[in-house]
């Protein structure tokens, strides 16, 4: 037997032995230095200094807690054989990569927590086999972009937390498979635009949190599909103006809007938009009194609510002053023209008499 064959055999044999022992009735291995609870099939590996996913996790385990360790990557087939696993906690590690096919055996996984790690990207098959997944936490990572494939096939997902990342862009089909999603948290990212079509399949979405991004534009039909939306958080973005049509397309029973901490340009148009929104029965601006003007300079620091209808009155007065000024100028010009005409007529008549 060659040296390379011997080396391969030496690597494979321990893994095969573990798998065989794990399938023997009544025989259960517990990875060192974790705690295993036989009665409930829980494996507790919290803060044990692990630098990789342990191999000898019992096959009947339904909850595995690996949070607070030093795992740097989730390797291909890391959870092979754990078909019963329903809950997996891997928060507070140093995970920078989840390799392709690393989660393929977890068809019955319902909760996955990868928060507080260092993920910059997700593999395209990240949720390919996670058809039972209902809750996914990816908050407090370093993600910058969501493509059209990473979150595919997660048809049963109800809750997705992507807050506290660095997401600047998302493919318009990034959430195409998440038709049952009810809670979506995108707070504290770097989004600039809420695009039409991004949420086209989220008719069941109840909570959408977008606060503290850089959103300066909400495209006209971006919110239209959200028939079940109860809360929309838009505080702390870069909104200066909004369109009434964008919000009136929210055909919901009752939706609460959070809109403060934006650099609003307070003019008659903005006051009219918020005035109309206030009169729409199913729309409620929770923090209307906290909407502070950023521009123009004479209104900076004032709340929009405190101005009541002053902005539109001021605009009306300005329009009237301008209209009256223009009218007086026109009248003055007509009077002057008439005087000039009469003067010319008088001069012409005088010349005729002299002749």
Describe, in short, the structure shown.
The protein has 355 residues and is of the alpha/beta class. Helices cover 23% and strands 15% of the residues.
What does this 3D model show about the protein?
The chain has helices at residues 3-23, 244-248, 268-279, 310-354, and strands spanning 35-37, 42-44, 63-65, 73-74, 87-89, 97-98, 111-113, 135-137, 145-146, 159-161, 169-170, 183-185, 193-194, 207-209, 217-218, 231-233, 255-258, 264-265, 283-285, 293-295. It has 355 residues and is of the alpha/beta class. It is rod-shaped and about 130 Å long. 28% of the residues are buried.
SSE blueprint and pairings:
Elements: H1 3-23, E1 35-37, E2 42-44, E3 63-65, E4 73-74, E5 87-89, E6 97-98, E7 111-113, E8 135-137, E9 145-146, E10 159-161, E11 169-170, E12 183-185, E13 193-194, E14 207-209, E15 217-218, E16 231-233, H2 244-248, E17 255-258, E18 264-265, H3 268-279, E19 283-285, E20 293-295, H4 310-354
Helix pairs in contact: 3-4
